[in-house]
Amino acid sequence: MQFEKLSNGVSIPMLGFGTYEIKKSEVAAAIQGALDAGYRHFDCAHIYGNEAEVGQAFKDSGIKREDLFITSKVWNADQGYDKTLAAFEQTLKDLQLDYLDLYLIHWPNEDNFQLSLDTWKALETLYDQGKVKSIGVSNFSEKQLNEVFAMAKVKPMVNQIERHPYKTQQELAAFDTKNGIVNEGYSPIGHGHLILEDATINKIAKVHGKTPAQVVLRWQVDTGFVIFPKSSNIDHVKANFDIFDFNLSDEEIKAINGLDQDKHLNY
User: Which of 15, 103, 240, 267 has the least CB density, counted as fewest CB within 10 Å?
Assistant: First the structure.
């Protein structure tokens, strides 16, 4: 495993396991399979509707809490100072935890951004209270981040954004890095069906004796992105973890960067 250091010194595993769209009936097996494969970083959210099942799976696993890195997110309907604090407590209850490692604003409120700023104040309160080890945002633009910077006592430590070879987000990623924000990428292989058939990626995969998915995930890590692919296929879960025994060359990274189409594939 490789780790990235957040601005406050907290270490975050660069490869995690996503819990989006895992059916409640499949959560226990999925989480245990991921743990058995070596994952210790899990990306959760209230809106995924399965945090109670995820929390029970953590409890049943017997893995020590300090060995896990667990993220959750506050949903749009819960934005605002008081509502965010209440939503956080519900997430802790559902996950059966005393604290989170990372708590994010899931989306900026486009209609009333002040609500998102009030939500950020709530995250700062939770951080000051030690209920969360680090705080950040998701899907925030450079303009929205600057608005947070203008009022924040604690700057966001993470920005989680859609990121795959057809949407490389290089300008936003550079802005985040310049401001001490770690980039996280969701949909890291862009749902696979298009990207995994790409000729450039397949050519690189053959050179390294890896699958196209492993090459894309390695590209994410080599370019500084924390990622959390999700799969219900245990063989894919294990394969996704097997990306730390090779590196891509600068030329290969440049070739994958060149596939950018600013194409939104998250659906």
Answer: 267
Per-residue model confidence as pLDDT tens digits over 91-111: 999 999 999 999 999 999 999
Instruction: Enumerate the β-bridge partners of residue 194.
Output: none
> Active-site residue among 48, 103, 127, 186?
48
Quote the CA–CA distance of 211 and 66 in Å, as a whole number: 32
Which residues on adjacent β-strands are paired with residue 184? 160, 226
**Lookup: tokens for 132:** 């969360």
DSSP 48: G
42: nearest Cα among 64, 12, 62? 12
Residue 160 pairs with which residues in a beta bridge? 138, 184
- Check if 267 is active-site: no
Overall pTM surpassing 0.90 (yes/no): yes
What kind of fold does domain 14-156 have according to CATH?
TIM Barrel (3.20.20)
